[in-house]
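wait is this the right file?? whatever heres the structure
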């Protein structure tokens, strides 16, 4: 298994509600650790517990996007602004393919079988895997998309803390877009996309590691 720290790529982390989970914090810590296998072992020990909700509620996950079509399209537009216009990308935690498919990303990893099956039905190549142990050689892709996920018992972190972990692990040239500026029940059209963060509930950060 190859170390993440030499994966030269553009990393996208979709940050909902100005926060990320302790799982995402662990992912960034993996990038800085050497030897990395120690943390990977620790993270994988909790792997089954983390994916269980996504096995159980895959259909409800899909229903959310159907019921919040304007929010979903707003989020896609915020990602498109920063998405590289060329190169081959992959998604870490591809879920049901709701982001990868419309964004033109053809491959990803997903540990939850129910989610993985739904993504494959969208004609995507999905491999059973986790962020802490990517099943690809170094420098295999030009960029990676990473949408954060939530757990009931998660500890949340601010965007400032996310920036700290990105910079700590060697990422730089951070750029941000944000959208979703109203409560979900108040949104009746696609929301605008703005630079920066601090106002919108959905934030995209692009960071480069060379």
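ok assuming it is, sequence goes like this
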């Amino acid at each position: 298994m190859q170390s993440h720290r030499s994966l030269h790529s553009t990393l996208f982390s979709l940050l909902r509600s100005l926060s990320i989970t302790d799982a995402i914090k662990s992912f960034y810590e993996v990038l800085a650790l050497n030897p990395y296998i120690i943390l990977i072992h620790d993270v994988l020990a909790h792997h089954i517990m983390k994916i269980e909700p996504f096995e159980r509620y895959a259909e409800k996950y899909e229903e959310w996007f159907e019921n919040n079509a304007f929010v979903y399209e707003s989020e896609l537009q915020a990602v498109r602004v920063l998405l590289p216009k060329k190169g081959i990308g992959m998604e870490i935690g591809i879920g049901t393919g709701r982001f990868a498919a419309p964004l033109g990303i053809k491959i990803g990893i997903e540990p939850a079988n129910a989610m993985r099956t739904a993504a494959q039905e969208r004609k995507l190549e999905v491999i059973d895997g986790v962020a802490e142990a990517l099943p690809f050689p170094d420098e295999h892709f030009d960029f990676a998309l990473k949408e954060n996920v939530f757990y009931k018992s998660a500890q949340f972190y601010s965007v400032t803390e996310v920036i700290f972990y990105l910079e700590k692990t060697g990422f730089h040239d951070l750029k941000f877009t944000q959208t979703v500026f109203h409560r979900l029940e108040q949104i009746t059209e696609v929301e605008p996309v703005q630079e920066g963060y601090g106002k919108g509930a959905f934030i995209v950060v692009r960071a480069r590691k060379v």
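The chain is about 35% helix and 20% strand. so i think its the right one actually
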